[in-house]
Structure prediction request, 540 residues.
Amino acid sequence: MKSNFFEVLRPGINSTFQDLGRENFYHIGLPFSGAMDNRNYLLSNTLVNNKYEAAIEFAYQGPLLKYYGKSTVIAVSGDVNFSITKKDKKLINGECYKNYVLENEDELDIISTNKSVYGYLSVSGGFVLEKILNSYSTFSRAKIGPFKGEKLFVNQKILINKTSDFKTQKKIKYVNTKIEYIRIIKATNFDFFSKKAVENFLNKEFIVTKLTDRMGMRIKGPIIENIKEKNIRSEGIVKGTIQIPPDGDPIIMLSDHGTIGGYPKIGVVISADYDKLVQLVPNTKIKFKLVNLPEAEKIYEIYRLETDNLINQIK
Amino acid sequence: MIKNILNLGDSSIYYDFGEQINKETNKKVISFFYSLKKANLEEIINLTPSYNKLIVSFDLKKTNFTELKKKIEDIKTSNIDEQKNKKIEIPICCDEEFFLDKERLIKKLKLSAEEILEKYLNKSYFCYMTGFVAGMPFLGDISKELRTDRLKTPRVKVPEGSVGITEQFSNIYTFESPGGWNIIGKTPYKIFNSNNKANPVLINPGDNVHFFPISKNEFLKLDEK
Prediction:
């Protein structure tokens, strides 16, 4: 039997395999990892009839892949420019949230994301990958994940589990709306900061800087003045925690964050806003808005229902 | 025992065991950690013990802060089973080449290199927590005479396997990473190994660790990296 696979002609800037993430390893220092934008990860999978298979997550510039084998089905999610070049050189401009049939020797070029960071590529039936510590997610800093935890690389061959014969075209209308405010909940060291600092934090604009990756997002705005202690005893942190180091510039911890930290925490981004937060490109202006726990829970419930609705529309 | 329970964001519970940083407090944290681990609740997706805190992260699709906090109240905390917590012997080579902060420590501590090593090697250390980067153990307490601050300017790259000290603690750099601890030697062991599926990390919270000195030749023979 001939195998069916993708050959990586160009890996892109930061392309990795991701799934829902790696649970229950914080206590040994492994972050959650997983798809940064959870909703888009689920949507690309649903468009090809998958549930929780690994997808290729790319940032800014995605990979250029050549497909060899029997026809199969792919989908791309996010806000992404991509094209498919058929064997006879015919060029198809890709649309996100719609599935496509790939045939032998077609080339899939994921050119770039538009005013957003991450996008996802799913193939029906999933890629042939090894689970590492119960997950397909890649944590490249500690080289944990499929292909020895490496990002995609040139000439890599990625086998797929099965070719798909499903012929249904699946499509959905979905627009990645921009977020006006990042909603946060007060964190455990909220009272370490001066009244003025808290006022600035909740009212002034911050700018996303280039020092942003899967581990964290550094933002710049008014200095957040600490009037108590600049360091705390190292303790656990979670996704979305906003730490204020001694220089007063906030860092938001993202999916590949260190599991323990010693900087005071001023807030935590609510779960419902996380997908939107990670899509903010450098130089975007953002503002924070304070909500309480019951509000955050209610907003999450709406987010979850919306996601389920989208998934059901595709099915 | 637990002094305060707060929420950290909308999907974590923050258990505060008080301001005291010592073995006694930490043992309570670790006992609680192992009890929750044993209870194996499906809504819990991560547990992070540290010196005096335990953070319980949960799946907001399955539960919420109030509900899970209540459920956890019913879980009995048993003391750490001393049997379960291993005594681990770790080889260390303190050859010139690996004792990166020898001169600095001699100056700061006003001790000879031999005295520093003797004081370091004749104790065994309790693992308070594991983390920051994968598998890094935070060990303590080192002898009072060895306590000093971090490097003013952290190294950009500390080699994998390096053993460092600062304040009352010691650690092992499980991956090459930036860091500011005073480096006194290097272990040939791979402390974190993701290929070992059952137990990817050699040292777990609550374990006791003792370092034994080896020569450069032995180091090269044992080197797993």
Q: What stands out?
A: Residues 106 and 120 of chain B are 13 Å apart (CA to CA). Chain B has a mean pLDDT of 92. Chain B touches chain A through 45 residues (CB under 8 Å). Residues 23-39 of chain B form the longest helix (17 residues).
